[in-house]
Amino acid sequence: MRGLKIAGTVLALGVATPCTAQSYHDLVDASDGFNGVALVGTGKQVRFVEGIGRADAANGVPMLANTRFETGSVSKWVASIVILKLVDQGRLDLDAPITRYLPDYRADTGARLTLRRLMSHSSGVPNDIQAARKDPATRGIEMEQMAAVRRYASGDLAFAPGTEWDYSHSNWLIAKAVAERISGKPYAALVEQLLVRPLGLKDSGVYRGDSGAVRGMAQGYAALVPEPVRKPNPVPDFMAMAGGFYTSAPDLLVLMNAVLDGRFLSPASRKALTTTLMPDQHYALGGRVRIEKIGGRDREAAWEDGSNGGFRMLARRVLADGHTVIVLTNASYDYQKLGDLGTALLDASYAGGEAR
Nearest Cα to 294, choosing from 325, 273, 271, 270? Predict the structure, then answer.
């Protein structure tokens, strides 16, 4: 189903002129083996969006512009936004010891940990949950949030907070416990209350377990040929901040526009979200901010990547002018090809949509 154009959806979203859309389409179509959705936008405007291939191969469901995808680690960036909304409400402080909010957390290390350090992966909390999830038998196990924190996020610190960087999923178990404790609500309800409803997101939310049960969701595959082979990687609820957010390409554009143009968050929170704390890793809160050669010039961009099971994705948004590319895939697409496609689409957006 190469080159499947979702023409009705494209027109409804107000994509630019046909020749511009064709240029973007040619770039996507030339990316061998691509199965997913690609979007190019500027600010609020969708210049191009196209679904190619199959969302559900077993049932012959085509890929649509608004097909839903797991976002993998982009869930951490979304979680950071939720926490910053609670900061803006005066309910959380990024630099307070987490024992202020979780008095039942381990006292010696809890007094040294802050949300800012947890969300920037500079806390020193060891990645015990990742090691545990290497055993397939543990992947579908659910447990209460603080029980998960005690089991997977309470080890001795690997380094003093702020001195090093380590990509530890366990950080987000603690952050979720804090957000739920201070709000009195499950994380999924917080996402609905603070993001989905205010922004009018139509295809976004938090799932638990196998995302394939979510209506309108693409299925994740290890491969589509010669026969489709599903590749699920269930996410328990206690890991929702680390990898349990789903969305569509148009919804993610709405979210990025609202957050990164400075209106949805306070100026202080937007600055916190986009300020790199660990420069050698380009890491800010829940995601990266990089200066890269884009459209022939060095430009600073929010630089988000995610994967889980058969899902791979990227989202790039130039902070100064809102040029954005979002690419979502569901069949274990090659990371290098995914990055190359994202770069080509973003470069093309600075050439009026014409491929270089």
Answer: 325
332 in Cβ contact with 312 (< 8 Å): yes
Place of tokens 């990742």: 130
Q: Name the β-bridge partners of 42.
A: 45, 323
What percent of the chain shows pLDDT beyond 70?
93
Contact in structure between 348 and 16 (CB atoms under 8 Å): no
266 burial via Cβ count (<10 Å: 0-12, 13-18, 19+): middle
Per-residue pLDDT at 28: 96
- 233 phi/psi in degrees, rounded to 5: -140, 85
Residue 5, pLDDT score: 39
* pTM exceeding 0.85: yes
Instruction: Say how many CA atoms lie within 13 Å of 11 toward its Cβ.
Output: 3
CB atoms within 10 A of CB 100: 14
Closest CA to 99 of 178, 26, 168, 36: 178
Residue 117 and residue 214 in contact, taking contact as beta carbons nearer than 8 Å:
no
Ordered DSSP codes for 291-324: EEEETTEEEEEEEEEEEETTEEEEEEEETTT-EE
Residues 6+ apart with CB under 8 A from 19: 353
Question: CA-based Rg of the chain, rounded to a whole angstrom?
Answer: 20
Sites in the chain below the pLDDT cut of 70: 1-20, 352-356
The type of residue at 186 is P
Q: How far is CA 346 from the centre of its chain?
A: 18
pLDDT in the model for residue 262: 75
Q: Please answer whether residues 327 and 38 qualify as being in contact, where contact means their C-beta atoms are separated by less than 8 angstroms.
A: yes
Partners of residue 326 on adjacent β-strands: 39, 315
Side chain identity at residue 17, one-letter code: T
Separation of alpha carbons 292 and 302, rounded Å: 10
Q: Tell me if 146 sits within 8 A of 104, measured CB to CB.
A: yes
Evaluate whether 192 touches 204 at the Cβ level (below 8 Å). no
